[in-house]
Design brief:
Number of domains of chain A: 1
Structural class of chain A: mainly alpha
CATH topology of the largest domain in chain B: ABC transporter involved in vitamin B12 uptake, BtuC
Largest sheet of chain B: 2 strands, antiparallel
Number of helices of chain A: 11
Distance between the termini of chain A: 55 Å
Number of strands of chain A: 4
Number of domains of chain B: 2
Largest sheet of chain A: 2 strands, antiparallel
CATH class of chain A: Mainly Alpha
Largest interface: A-B, 79 and 73 residues
Oligomer: heterodimer
CATH architecture of the largest domain in chain B: Orthogonal Bundle
Shape of chain B: globular
CATH class of the largest domain in chain B: Mainly Alpha
Radius of gyration of chain A: 19 Å
Helix content of chain A: over 70%
Shape of chain A: globular
Number of strands of chain B: 2
Distance between the termini of chain B: 16 Å
Order of helices and strands of chain B: HHEEHHHHHHHHHHHHHHHHHH
Number of helices of chain B: 20
CATH architecture of chain A: Orthogonal Bundle
Structural class of chain B: mainly alpha
Chain lengths: 305, 457
């Protein structure tokens, strides 16, 4: 069944794009301050909620074309979600940067629980459905009544992801902000001595990460059409797995890991059992950590005393 | 640093204080308008937006006033530089230190209260006490892993579940009694701890956190889907209650005498409740006794040394992986014991009882109480279980259980900010060169010193 395989490939790539965008947030934060931002999955969840609310408001106003509506929502979601990313760093991580090693980690877990139940309390616990914004797609090939389809939505998701990847790679490699980020990643004290504003750089890293998570949240809302306050947990763990698989700290690695995790999940659901698809992803995480802790594209980590 | 100083300067003067508070309130406004102000509600099958800007106004006002008070308080502290430089131990530090000094006395009083309580209180209070004790035991077990060995375990509930399901499966399939199952459950959970811990314990601490999180989820998903063995979402029922040397706590038994008949008492339900209470009290005290003794053994000292500086430990030839593994396995074993008690107490278990929220609750208990502090865990367990019940006690609190995770999460962040070692944490050396007549203050590193000497990049 070549067609079935192709269809799953397309679905997996779309899913992988979403995971990859979240994974970049983990990898950037880990690269720069060496901690797992446990609250990142919840930032993604908040992004999906803000996008849902924006769509509902646009719907009630009416009279927008689908693409234009998506663009407006994208902008609004990125702005508001970035504020969440910024605030989380400012409140829960910055004061703890010099504290003992478990402190920021526990603070991050506390923040994650807080944000999750914040949405649960103020937005309600029930799943929230959204009417599809976009219909239709392109039939790539048809054989024996089985059509391989790529929907317009999937095209938009993949194009947006590729665009964002190019944009962010450019920022990190070409701009002065990117240089500061890479400097902080190598040696924060030295960077500060050379006049890099470390606090600002770290804040902006969180803002960028949250912005990408917001896009992922928007895509998730559009693609699945139903969200709840709990989606951040699983998506967060899977995106983290993607970041580790690709090599934590490496930007292209995060994207590659995201795509691989998306494909694994899609093919596992298609050919094995749906019930254990999350277990499959967790097993990948454990196996990578045992046999190749540096991931596919990561550099080995040297502990400094 | 420059930014911090600039912020400190900005905070000086009344107008600066107010401006800063206004800026914070503005951020709060931006954050809450889309998430709180515009609520998605269902109406006739479709989602509509309802506006809740009054709640937003309340939150923003609280944030503004809170930030204002905090700034004023900090400005007053900064105004007395001499005091701020050598403030010494704060009020909370002194309290924690005196609690640590009088640990034996407080423990003894607590023990007497715990023993007497069931005989002078209602069934409801005994049940409440049993709940508290389960969390105390889980907290003490996790304290070995997180507090002593410094390993962040986010899937502790998985071992709790392993213990519970071991008892349930052995009891329902092979007809074994609770007391036979109890050690098996502990052993099995410890075995799981070793199997899981072995591959990941040589990695950095944060990887361990996320792998244990994943493992907790795997266990839950397997319990949910492996219908043939675990009954899936329906769970397992009919788990036998524990007996006192073969005397069951029932009104009438077809096979031999019951507890009430043997002692010539009238049967009442509270006898069983009191018995269960004492079973968990005993289990919890064993956990505590074990931990206290372990801290005096070489392996216990090695746990604490590893927590403080792993590189130094490896440099002097300690086998870090094995030492961590022992802490992990022992912590898992106690979770297994607690899980087997949980199963036999309710007589019914299902995967619903073993979600990540439960792991987070246990972690919150350890963190809030003070990592490594046994009394702190008791205090935090009482606080958190009371929070569940508070809505029932005080009707004006309404449905406070809904806000529970919000409070846990917020409290975890706040505690890390103000007292990173936990409310009742008091760090003192386990060994002293010159006798044990109280810790010598010069030997006790405070957190700031520890951070500046131990955590240089």
């Amino acid at each position: 069944m070549m067609e079935y395989f192709l269809q799953q490939l397309i679905n997996g790539l779309t899913l992988g794009a979403v995971y990859g965008l979240i994974a970049i947030g983990y990898t950037m934060v880990y690269g720069i301050i060496g901690m797992i931002n446990f609250a990142h999955g919840e930032i993604f969840m908040i992004g999906s909620f803000i996008s849902l609310i924006s769509f509902l408001i646009l719907n009630s106003v009416g009279g927008f074309s689908a693409v234009f509506a998506i663009l407006i929502v994208l902008l609004v979601t990125m702005i508001f979600t970035s504020m969440f990313g910024w605030s989380v760093e400012r409140i829960a991580y910055r004061p703890l940067r010099e504290s003992f090693k478990l402190a920021p980690l526990i603070s991050a877990i506390g923040m994650s629980i807080f944000l999750q139940s914040f949405i649960q309390v103020f937005q309600g616990a029930r799943p929230k459905p959204l009417q599809p914004i976009m219909h239709g797609g392109i039939t790539l090939l048809e054989n024996d009544g089985f059509a391989v389809q790529i929907s317009y939505l999937q095209i938009i998701i993949i194009i947006m992801t590729v665009g964002l990847m190019i944009g962010f790679t450019t920022i990190i490699q070409q701009t002065s902000l990117g240089r500061s980020q890479r400097a902080c990643e190598q040696d924060r004290t030295m960077a500060a001595l050379l006049g890099v504003n470390v606090d600002r750089t770290i804040s902006l890293t969180f803002v960028m990460g949250a912005g990408l998570a917001a896009v992922a949240g928007l895509m998730f809302t559009l693609y699945y059409g139903v969200i709840d306050f709990f989606i951040g947990f699983l998506a967060g763990v899977k995106a983290f797995t993607a970041a580790v698989l690709g090599g934590i700290g490496s930007l292209p690695g995060a994207m590659l890991g995201g795509v691989l995790i998306g494909l694994i999940e899609a093919f596992w659901s298609a050919y094995f059992t749906l019930a254990y698809k999350d277990v499959a992803v967790f097993m990948v995480l454990v196996l990578v950590l045992i046999f190749r802790p540096t991931g596919l594209l990561g550099r080995p980590e040297v502990e400094k005393v | 640093m420059a930014a911090v100083q600039a912020a400190a300067r900005r905070r000086e003067g009344l107008s600066g204080v107010v401006l800063d508070a206004l800026a914070t309130a503005a951020v709060a406004l931006v954050l809450t308008v889309p998430t709180v102000g515009l609520k998605t509600d269902e109406s006739g099958g479709t989602l509509i937006i309802t506006r809740h800007f009054d709640t937003v106004a309340w939150i923003v006002a609280v944030v503004f006033l809170g930030r204002l008070c905090m700034n004023l308080f900090m400005a007053r502290r900064a105004a007395k530089p001499g005091e701020q430089k050598k403030a010494g131990p704060g009020a909370m530090d002194r309290l924690a230190a005196s609690v640590a000094r009088n640990q034996a006395r407080i423990g003894a009083v607590g023990f007497v209260i715990a023993v007497v309580l069931p005989f002078i209180s209602s069934n409801y209070l005994i049940d409440f006490g049993t709940n508290v004790l389960i969390y105390v035991m889980l907290g003490w077990g996790l304290n070995i892993v997180v507090g002593l060995a410094g390993l962040l375990d986010l899937g502790y509930v998985a071992f709790y579940a392993v213990g519970a399901y071991t008892v349930a499966l052995l009891a329902t399939n092979f007809g074994l009694g609770f007391w036979t199952c109890l050690p098996l459950a502990g052993l099995f959970a410890a075995f799981f701890g070793v199997v899981l811990g072995f591959p990941v314990l040589r990695l950095r601490g944060d990887y361990l956190a996320i792998v244990t999180l994943g493992f907790g989820e795997i266990i839950r998903i397997v319990l949910l889907n492996w219908q043939v063995v675990t009954g899936g979402p329906n769970g397992i029922g009919g788990i036998p209650r524990p007996t006192l040397f073969g005397l069951p706590f029932v009104a009438r038994s077809s096979s031999g005498t019951t507890f009430a008949e043997f002692f010539g008492l009238d049967f009442s339900v509270s006898q069983r409740l009191i018995f269960l209470y004492f079973v968990i009290l005993m289990l919890a005290l064993i956990t505590n006794f074990f931990t206290v003794r372990m801290r005096r053994l070489p392996v216990g000292r090695a746990w604490e040394a590893l927590r403080e500086d792993e590189i130094a430990c490896r440099a002097i030839g300690m086998n870090a992986t094995n030492i961590k593994l022992s802490a992990f396995a022992i912590g898992a074993m106690f979770a297994g014991f607690a899980g087997s008690f949980f199963a036999t107490r309710l007589g019914f278990i299902s995967p619903e009882s073993f979600t990540f929220t439960e792991s987070a609750t246990i972690l919150a208990i350890v963190v809030l109480g003070g990592m490594g502090s046994q009394l702190g865990v008791v205090l935090a367990a009482i606080m958190l279980v009371s929070l569940n019940e508070a809505g029932r006690w005080f009707s004006f609190l309404g449905d406070i259980a809904l806000y529970r995770p919000l409070i846990y999460g917020g409290a975890m962040v706040v505690i890390m900010l103000v007292r990173p070692r936990g409310l009742l944490a008091h760090r003192q050396p386990s060994i002293l060169l010159h006798g044990s007549d109280g810790p010598r203050e010069s030997l006790v590193p405070n957190d700031a010193q520890a951070a500046s000497t131990g955590e240089l990049p």
